Amino acid sequence: MDAPLGLRERKKRDTRWALSDAALELALERGLDNVTREDIANRAGVSLRTFNNYFTGKYEAIAFRQVDRMRQSLAVFRQRPAGEGLWSAITESMLAPLQSGGTDVAPTAGEVAVIRDLLAARDLRAALTKDLFADWVEAIAQRTGTDPARDMYPRLVAGVVRAVGEVAIEMYADADPPVAYTELLRRGLAEVSAGLPER
């Protein structure tokens, strides 16, 4: 179980969230191309130097939201009951930080347009995918009694989890009419859990 954050760590996490919220708000208002690091810092009420202490750029600031949710999911996954099936534990842990985060509702047309721009940004995709993969591999290996250095299984499972998340986000951006991200994520994980049967 993860130790609770101290006051200093909580303040840092709150600042990261404030900057990430500001970045997303501005992207929704103006479009991603019309947002600068200075704009984000001003909206969050901090200096540009403070922004630079936390993020390398606007893509990383926006990606923090998803990365932080993945960290929360990982913490939940490590605490799921030992007797629970692997894919049930993964599904519940992936959905846990999303249930109260507004992603269980369909996006507006304006939000969809910005989400499409964000998904097209190579820097944002890199920021989302560089973190946490090794941690998920380790946690899956521990739960399944496999060796992450020698067994392919935990890496395959972690890779599938990442792929389902990416596909769900892409479908979330393209769905017409709009669909809640949580619904798409749950559907994708259910398909994988069923073994992706032929149709």
TrEMBL record:
Residues within the DNA-binding region(s): 36-55
Transmembrane segments: none
A Pfam family per the record: TetR_N
Alphabetical list of Gene3D superfamilies matching this protein: Homeodomain-like, Tetracycline Repressor, domain 2
Domain HTH tetR-type, first and last residues per copy: 13-73
MF (Gene Ontology): DNA-binding transcription factor activity; transcription cis-regulatory region binding
Keyword line: DNA-binding, Transcription, Transcription regulation
Family annotation (SUPFAM superfamilies): Homeodomain-like
Secretion signal, residue range per the UniProt entry: none
Official protein name in the record: TetR family transcriptional regulator
Species this protein is from: Mycolicibacterium litorale
Species classification: Bacteria, Bacillati, Actinomycetota, Actinomycetes, Mycobacteriales
